Amino acid sequence: MAQQTDSAGSGSEAFGQRFGVAFVGSGSAKLETVLTNEQLAKVVDTSDEWIATRTGIRQRHIANPGDSIRSLGGEAAANAIAQANLTPTDVDLIILATSTPDDLFGSACQIQHEIGASRAIAFDITAACSGFVFALVTASQFIRTGAYKTVVVVGADLLSRLTDWSDRRTCVLFGDGAGAIVLQRSESSDNLLSFEMHSDGTLNDCLNASYQHESTPLTENVTVQKGSFNPVTMNGREVYRFAVNRVPEVLEKSLFHANLTVDDIDWLILHQANQRILDAVAKRLKISSDRVVSNMAEHGNTDAASIPIALDEWVRSGKIKTGDVLALSGFGAGLSWGAAILKWGK
Ligand code: UT7
């Protein structure tokens, strides 16, 4: 059953809360290889004009054969830790949001090893394009209860691994990437101002990369499943409709819980799925386009990595400053969607 109640997702209650959360660093990985729309038009029946006008995407980055969630997620995490003026051994917990792990048992431990965060425990979260927001909220709970002081949240996905390169309806959308942020305990303030998360499994068929199994008899009474994961399939129109309805709603609820209005938002950072979705959400919220972060033209849709990459680019270019109020919203497979309102910096 869909969970649509306020109480399920709201972050406004301070029950059990002992400490505040500060957002102290961001980082991302640099992927050199670019796949342009023109190049894709040689692979499938599409055009730069169609992709750009329908999505805003002009190119996407594709991981090199030697790259992995471990290497790219590790690079993003290390950059975020350095920006926070910390060292990897300061980190207590690493949460990796990914749908394309190097290891189905989880890749967070590999990132822990990659960056030398020897004290950190590490685990993965899978919530597709909502994964980064869900992981950020999860990380904040560990800080608020006093369990951990320093947490790195990584959003990393190599959707090129799950893309059907003969399906023009999906292959033009996706790219690879990794981003990360560092959260720390604060004794003076709580900069996670509110959050709201939702899931609706009744719409799972609209967007998935499902496991396809064949039943294989093992003994006379035991049959096992053998198979592999299908590439991404999506009902684009349904997901589009879902996004333009649910995203403004979840942001409005989050603002309400934070006792803020749209005018208080310095930067709106949505999952970079489609420029038309960003524009529609901004219009509905009546927020001017110069406060809407978009790097879609360069990166396409990088799943759980899209929000932290955009955030890091805006932080490093000096546009996002300490004290700025950021409204983040992720949405996608599950279907799932969520928002977090936060104040950047200590
Ligand atoms: O990250 C998770 C969240 N994901 C999203 O939020 C994605 C949401 N959906 C979308 O962004 C859009 O639905 C798409 C970008 C995926 C598709 O745009 P659309 O405006 O909804 O196009 P459509 O699927 O309605 O297709 C329109 C036409 C169709 O042709 P006909 O049937 O009208 O003749 C498609 O076959 O465009 C055709 N088409 C293409 N043509 C050239 C579909 N893909 C392509 C393509 N190149 N790549």
Automatic annotation (TrEMBL):
It holds the Pfam family ACP_syn_III_C. Residues 123-201 form the Beta-ketoacyl-[acyl-carrier-protein] synthase III N-terminal domain. It is found in: Cytoplasm. The keyword Ligase does not apply. It catalyses: 3-methylbutanoyl-CoA + malonyl-[ACP] + H(+) = 5-methyl-3-oxohexanoyl-[ACP] + CO2 + CoA; (2S)-2-methylbutanoyl-CoA + malonyl-[ACP] + H(+) = (4S)-4-methyl-3-oxohexanoyl-[ACP] + CO2 + CoA; 2-methylpropanoyl-CoA + malonyl-[ACP] + H(+) = 4-methyl-3-oxopentanoyl-[ACP] + CO2 + CoA; malonyl-[ACP] + acetyl-CoA + H(+) = 3-oxobutanoyl-[ACP] + CO2 + CoA. Gene3D superfamilies: 3.40.47.10. Its EC number is 2.3.1.180. GO terms for molecular function: 3-oxoacyl-[acyl-carrier-protein] synthase activity; beta-ketoacyl-acyl-carrier-protein synthase III activity. GO terms for cellular component: cytoplasm. The last Arg residue of the ACP-binding site is essential for the weak association between ACP/AcpP and FabH. Homodimer. Belongs to the thiolase-like superfamily. FabH family. This is Beta-ketoacyl-[acyl-carrier-protein] synthase III. It comes from Leptolyngbya foveolarum.
